[in-house]
Amino acid sequence: MNKRNMLLNLTTLWLVFAAGLSSGCSKVGETEEPQPASGADRSIRLSAGLQAVTKAAVGSGAAFTASVGGWESVSEADYGKAASWLSTASVTASESASAIALTPKRYYSQNGAERTYIKAWYPQGTVEGGLVSFAGDETYKGDGTDDILLSGEVSGSALDAAARTLAFRHLTTQFRFTVQGDALFGTTTTVRSITLKGTGVPAGLDLRSDALTYDASSGVTVPGIGGTQTITEQVATVGEAVMVPPYAGNTFRIDVQTSEVTYRDVLVTVRDDASTLPGKAYTIALTFAGYEVTTHASVAEWDYTGTGSGDVTTD
């Protein structure tokens, strides 16, 4: 072998060796976990669906990117601890589950005694000590129009790696408001604001209890009321749908400010339910007659069952 060929062979060996070194290096969190040398398929395979999507902020056919977390344990999951891994998944809202891909891709632990417990949520936010904070998430508005989604827990292992389905559900109750006045009320009064009392804008969720976190003392003002909606004899929708944590009972109070007078602590009663329910939408009809306002609650299309009504006279 001449010197030229020897140099070429040495160069080739060095390039192969360097490529091997390069393929074994990656930044933490940027690439998937390595597949075991045995070739056994430990990949985590998931599909996802979303219940009752009609009239939701995340409606049927809408795409959203959820955060997906895995907690590895030989017993049950402790969601108060840091997740073993976090990924994201693009989901298209549909009541029929379809396959989703984790980014980065994840694998079950090679320890056959260990299971991976998985939950997913939207908006993604940040996670610490089992608490998800939505603040800073670019998809989170924080004005009562956020549709908060959480999946039920699924689990699997290297010995039980069948595909699992993440069933997302809505954590909030949705309210829509309509207004109508009688002939004596006139046609010049406008709605300036409607405020739901005893509740707050969802700010995050607790993965340990699957409960929303919020400030109940702040109240929530219905978004999208610009003060231009005139109260007439025709029923008119006012503002946008607002989504808040469910009330513990079937009654709650609202303040309604018009250009003429403010109606304080108006009682709304949902008669068919012991409490307002997550994943259920209610339309609250406000009927004005002179200096009185009557409320009527009915179930909108987010959920298809039940009705409710109530009558009040303000002070």
Q: Mind explaining what this structure looks like?
A:
With 315 residues, the chain is mostly beta strands. The protein folds into two domains: 125 residues; 127 residues, Immunoglobulin-like (Sandwich), CATH 2.60.40. The chain is built from one helix and 21 strands. The longest helix has 21 residues. The N and C termini lie far apart (105 Å).
Summarize the structure.
This protein has one helix at residues 3-23; strands at 46-50, 63-73, 85-92, 98-100, 115-122, 126-128, 131-133, 149-151, 154-156, 164-170, 173-181, 190-196, 204-206, 211-213, 220-221, 229-230, 236-244, 251-258, 262-269, 281-289, 292-299. With 315 residues, the chain is mostly beta strands. The model is unreliable at 2-30 and 304-315 (pLDDT under 50).
Tertiary shape: elongated
Report the helical percentage.
Answer: under 10%
Indicate how many domains the architecture comprises. Answer: 2
Low-confidence stretches: 2-30, 304-315
CATH class of the largest domain: Mainly Beta
CATH architecture of the largest domain: Sandwich
Q: N-to-C SSE series?
A: HEEEEEEEEEEEEEEEEEEEEE
- The CATH topology name of the largest domain reads Immunoglobulin-like
Cα(first) to Cα(last) distance is 105 Å
Q: Mind telling me the C-alpha Rg?
A: 27 Å
What is the averaged pLDDT score? Answer: 81
Structural class by sheet pairing and helices? mainly beta
- The number of distinct helices, counting runs of at least 4 residues, comes to 1
Number of extended strands: 21
